[in-house]
Amino acid sequence: MKVAIGVLTYKRPDGLKRLLAGLELLTFEKACTPEVHVLVIDNDPEASAQDFCLQRQESYRWKLVYSQETRRGISHARNRALALGADGYDGIAFIDDDEEPAPDWLDQLLFVQQEYGADVVTGPVLPRMEEPAPDWSKKGKFYERSRHPTGFRMELARTGNVLISTSLLKNPTNRFDPRYGLSGGEDTHFFLRIRQQGHEIIWADEAVVYEWVPASRIKPGWLLQRAYRSGNTYALCERDIRLPAHRLLLRAVKGVMRIGWGMLLLLPSVLLGPVRLIRSLQQICIGAGMVMGLAGSRYEEYEETHGV
Question: In which family does this protein belong, per the annotation (predicted)?
Fold first, then answer.
């Protein structure tokens, strides 16, 4: 078994150091220890990660490969990793430079892939705050994502914690769409198409990754921006893959209903505290993002990178 781990980085030297250190600590008990190659894709035109990676290559536990992708955008960087990992590997995992794996992360992904014969395996991303989180963020659990029992069949996966069988890459269309390079949602677009082809995405709840959340994201404004972007990119994805007209109409109706519901709750939520207020505003932003996405408007959230 030969596995590539795609690490995308953009001007996050501390995050990259922390991630590479964490990958050296990977353990294998449920699956046989694979041959692991770590593919660092530097999306900085100035190649800011190059010197560090070249210095680490000789002493690093796994084979460490450095590659630069000068075209700005997360889709281009992910496709560079797929190009490097398509041949000679059984699977390619993705993890981001603001994340850190649990020691058994890859072991759990491989085990679930083998147990279920899955084409794609994904798992939880748990938040770790770089600074103490305010009470409203803890009470509202705004940075926590949904979890499922292992073996649960998913409609989508996130590329911050995923293992993809390279057999899927034999289809040349199974690549990340460059139009989503700065907006995000490239993983939603990719995995919606994967599911349309009949491939299964399986959840591995023990395959844990931790995401370090910078202070710049622990703000209501960022949560609302992310809500708008999420609604926007999901609607754009559904529009792009040419769902039937009635499905797109249903998405538009849902978007308008979210706006209406959020506005209805807005006044009482002002009196009920910041958690309720943020949730009401999130509904409005998600709905507005959906409507604008169906109209073809694209919001490019990743023009600004947090934590650099």
Answer: Belongs to the glycosyltransferase 2 family.
Return the beta strands (E) in the chain as ranges: 2-9, 35-42, 63-68, 91-96, 99-101, 120-122, 125-129, 153-154, 162-165, 201-203, 209-213
Same domain for 147 and 283:
no
Q: Encode pLDDT of 221-252 as tens digits.
A: 999 999 999 999 999 998 888 777 877 888 89
DSSP string spanning 48-62?
TTHHHHHHHHTT-SS
Q: Which residues pair with 96 in a beta bridge?
A: 8
pLDDT tens for 269-295 read 988 999 999 999 999 999 999 999 998
The pLDDT of residue 104: 98
Q: CA-CA distance, 214 to 222, in Å (whole number)?
A: 11
Residue partners of 181: CB distance under 8 A and separation at least 6: 71, 72, 73, 74, 75, 76, 302
In a domain, 52, yes or no: yes
50 with 199, same domain?
A: yes
Number of domains in the chain: 2
From the centroid of its chain, how far is CA 205? Answer: 16
Of 200, 215, 230, the residue at which a domain comes to its end is 215
Rounded distance, CA 123 to CA 149, Å? Answer: 10
What does pTM read for this prediction? 0.92
Distance of alpha carbon 94 from alpha carbon 105, whole angstroms: 11
For residue 299, the enclosing domain spans 220-303
